[in-house]
Write a sequence for this structure.
């Protein structure tokens, strides 16, 4: 009995130590990091992007409880939302020069945006904004309205109409969409953010692997929804957030199980987890305003099994192969549609069935940037799919491979997703990628049975 307990004890000590190693900052420390990153982005990144897009003035207007998606990335950490009407103005006097930042609001907005309106002297906020714009006389005034990206379409109709009514006639022709600038702002990662993203992804991997283990799952008792809600509790316990409700689904040899053909628009039914099941998790966390989006697989060992069956591990390799084909087609300047097209040609030439639905990842889980396929459309995606690939941008490499497994006499769908960075030359997974199916329980791998 004592000998049997020793491996469990070592596993508990290892997991406990691992949890302690994965540092999560206090709320105060998180706020300090977020604010320092924002200062870095405004000082070093924004001038580059405004010069690149030819925009010399960017005006972001948002009212309380109706937040523009972009303004959320410009507010200090201690601001939960815009206050009353918050107007942020960013002006670049000359290409490559520092950007001047103003808050046409009742308050300073963090360190970067100093108040440029005194209601006691000028009661009309719009008049104050127009005075500032007229003084700067910009060639292009970018507003957040956009056709292809909801992220860049945060300006409401009322605010746009009011802005245009107040804007001097000689400047009306200078108004343009901020779509490209907004997308570039959202998709581009700074050096500091890149340095931390590996740690954020490592935290996500740790939580996923703990949930897909004997610490959480008792075969024959635990359901998929039990595991889903364990993940939600774990996220809160670790002082993290999530941007979507996780999901757990099952593929099994049973002919009645048709999970491999389920449409992603339909939620999988709650199911009791049994030995021989292939589990799939879709999971994401939010930390320091950055998001993860990860999908992994685990297998529940049957009596007498000490490892995942080789035929499933072989099937899993097809998923890794699709990842390789996709990421080798990441070339600066290519559009999302071009990357998808080239990858699907390679898949077809190798006889691989599957789908690609990869998306940008950063301030939002489904973020701005080039869309590379969609689960319900493996052809071109107009608009977002036509956006070009840029360096220093992050992605959720999301896809599946469909493999016929003769031992089950049916197809198995290998669904994978991992966070990665494109540095302009190659794709690097933030914290590696899953290369084999996890075993549940993993302790039995070294019990010697």
């Amino acid at each position: 009995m004592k000998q049997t307990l020793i491996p469990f004890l070592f596993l508990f000590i290892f997991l406990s130590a691992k949890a302690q190693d994965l540092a999560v900052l206090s709320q105060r420390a998180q706020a300090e990091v977020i604010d320092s990153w924002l200062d870095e982005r405004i000082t070093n990144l924004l001038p580059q992007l405004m010069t690149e897009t030819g925009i010399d003035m960017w005006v972001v207007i948002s009212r309380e409880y109706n937040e523009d998606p972009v303004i959320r990335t410009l507010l200090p950490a201690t601001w939960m939302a815009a206050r009353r009407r918050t107007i942020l103005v960013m002006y670049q006097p000359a290409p490559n020069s520092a950007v001047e930042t103003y808050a046409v609001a009742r308050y300073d907005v963090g360190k970067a945006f100093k108040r440029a309106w005194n209601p006691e002297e000028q009661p009309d906020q719009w008049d104050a904004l127009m005075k500032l714009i007229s003084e700067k006389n910009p060639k292009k005034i970018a507003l957040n309205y956009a056709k292809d990206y909801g992220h860049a379409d945060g300006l409401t109709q009322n605010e746009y109409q009011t802005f245009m009514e107040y804007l001097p006639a000689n400047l009306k022709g200078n108004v343009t969409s901020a779509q490209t600038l907004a997308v570039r702002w959202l998709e581009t990662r700074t050096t500091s953010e890149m340095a931390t993203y590996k740690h954020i992804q490592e935290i996500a991997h740790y939580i996923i692997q703990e949930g897909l283990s004997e610490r959480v799952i008792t075969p024959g008792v635990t359901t998929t929804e039990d595991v889903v809600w364990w993940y939600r509790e774990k996220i809160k316990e670790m002082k993290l957030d999530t941007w979507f409700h996780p999901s757990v689904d099952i593929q099994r040899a049973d002919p009645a199980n048709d999970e491999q053909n389920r449409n992603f628009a339909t939620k999988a039914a709650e199911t009791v987890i049994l030995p021989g099941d292939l589990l799939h998790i879709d999971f994401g966390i939010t930390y320091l305003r950055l998001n993860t989006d990860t999908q992994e697989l685990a297998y529940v060992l049957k009596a007498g099994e000490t490892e995942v069956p080789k035929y499933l591990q072989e099937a899993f390799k097809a998923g890794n192969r699709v990842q390789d084909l996709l990421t080798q087609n990441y070339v600066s300047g290519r559009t999302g549609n071009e990357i998808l097209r080239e990858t699907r040609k390679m898949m077809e030439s190798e006889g691989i069935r599957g789908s690609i639905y990869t998306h940008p990842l950063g301030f939002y889980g489904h973020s701005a940037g080039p869309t590379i396929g969609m689960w319900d459309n493996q052809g071109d995606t107009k608009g977002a799919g036509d956006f070009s690939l840029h360096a220093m941008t992050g992605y959720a490499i999301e896809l599946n491979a469909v493999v016929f497994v003769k031992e089950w006499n049916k197809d198995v769908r290998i669904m994978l997703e991992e966070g990665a960075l494109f540095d302009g030359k190659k794709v690097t997974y933030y914290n590696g990628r899953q290369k084999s199916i996890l075993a549940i329980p993993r302790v039995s791998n070294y019990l010697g049975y």
